[in-house]
Amino acid sequence: MSVSQIITDDNKISAFFKYGAAVDVGTTTVVLKLYSADGVCVGVSSALNPQREFSADVIGRISKALFGEGESLQNSVTDCITRLLTEACGSAGIHNTDVDRMVITGNTAMLYLLTGRDPVSISRFPFKPDCLFGEWVEFLGIKTYLAPCISAFVGGDTVCALLSSGILCKKETALLCDIGTNGEIALYKNGALYVTSVAAGPAFEGGGISCGCSAASGAVYRVWAEDGEIYSHTIENANAIGICGSGLIDALSAFLEEGCIDTEGTAMRPLVIRAKGKSISLTQKDIRALQLAKSAVAAGIECMLSRTGTEVGDIKTLYISGAFGTKIDPQSAVNIGLFPSGLKDKTHFIGNGALDGASKMLFDNSSFAFSKELSAKAKTLFLGGSKDFNQSFIKNISFK
């Protein structure tokens, strides 16, 4: 076991450390930021989550763990974090042993698999986790805080994104969408916090898309239609290597605008994007994967608002969290039906809110108690298998 429990009082944790690391263990991507004690980010590293070799989604990985592959799943992500830490420390000119504080966040299943816990409690009804974390452990020989989770399907990544957004510090009705393989949605209204989760799949992170990639140099991140052609920009203006999340949302919008795909998502002609160095093409299968992803998120938002008696007009701010590569164009998101049109001018992009929230925890001891309080007060709305979600999901598949 690479993780062992430390009995520690949050309030007694020293505010001083030499170097600290914040880690977001996403279903698709693992990202690490290294900080010096004065709050300066001195290194960033990321990689695809190697657990993808076992299964692309959370349910598949839980199943693998239940059938004897839990240790292999744990070792794969532990090795990944070790490599990322070594890489970040190398770029900062320090050694791994100089890091003496770490905060790790992720969805509930990712934290179960990271710590080698038996996931049986989150694998079957009534899906009540026997651990919600929010605790100090020793990981890779480093004093490490595991962010608290809310429920089986709403994890520490959502708690950290909420912490990053500051949504609970304002007296307004606001919505937060953390769009990843698991799309988490939170609504703050009249002092109450509601949360839910939908299985969006990895499409908006470039996963499962024929030319998809993470937000690296050369990734197509902005796409638009002009004079009957589809054009793009790449990250750092480098030669194109593929297309990341924000580019995919733009591309869908541009293809619809030009009639390259119809309102049912059927490709009417080749889906080609002009990019630096080469052209990028999407397939019919790619479009279907993106439809399923956007429909899940849209249905989740619709059901969240309906169940809480909230109108789109009541929402003052829509916080968007996720590692897309750049800000999502609100108009493109509305064009494809990802968000209601009434939220187009209310969007506020907070980047990788999960990682930013974990970074905040490194330097603010009060955030430990606040995050636990936040996770305890949240009311989880379960959508899986419900009639209203299924109907909304089917309705939102099309681009009408």
Characterise this structure:
α1 crosses α2 and α5 packs across α9. β14 and β15 form a beta hairpin. The chain contains nine helices and 18 strands. The strands form four sheets. The chain has a seven-stranded mixed β-sheet, with helices on both faces. The chain has a six-stranded mixed β-sheet with strand order 17-16-8-9-10-18. A three-stranded mixed β-sheet has the order 12-11-13. By secondary structure, it is of the alpha/beta class. The model has no long low-confidence stretch (mean pLDDT 92).
Concise account of the structure shown:
This protein has 400 residues and is an alpha/beta fold. The chain has helices at residues 58-92, 108-115, 156-165, 245-257, 284-307, 330-335, 353-363, 366-377, 387-396; strands spanning 3-5, 19-25, 29-36, 41-48, 99-106, 135-139, 142-146, 174-178, 182-189, 192-199, 219-226, 229-234, 242-243, 271-274, 279-282, 317-321, 347-351, 379-380. A seven-stranded mixed β-sheet has the order 1-6-7-5-2-3-4, sandwiched between helices. It has a six-stranded mixed β-sheet with strand order 17-16-8-9-10-18. Strands 12-11-13 form a three-stranded mixed β-sheet.
Core attributes:
18 strands, 400 residues, 9 helices, Nucleotidyltransferase, domain 5, 25% strand, globular, six-stranded mixed sheet, alpha/beta, seven-stranded mixed sheet
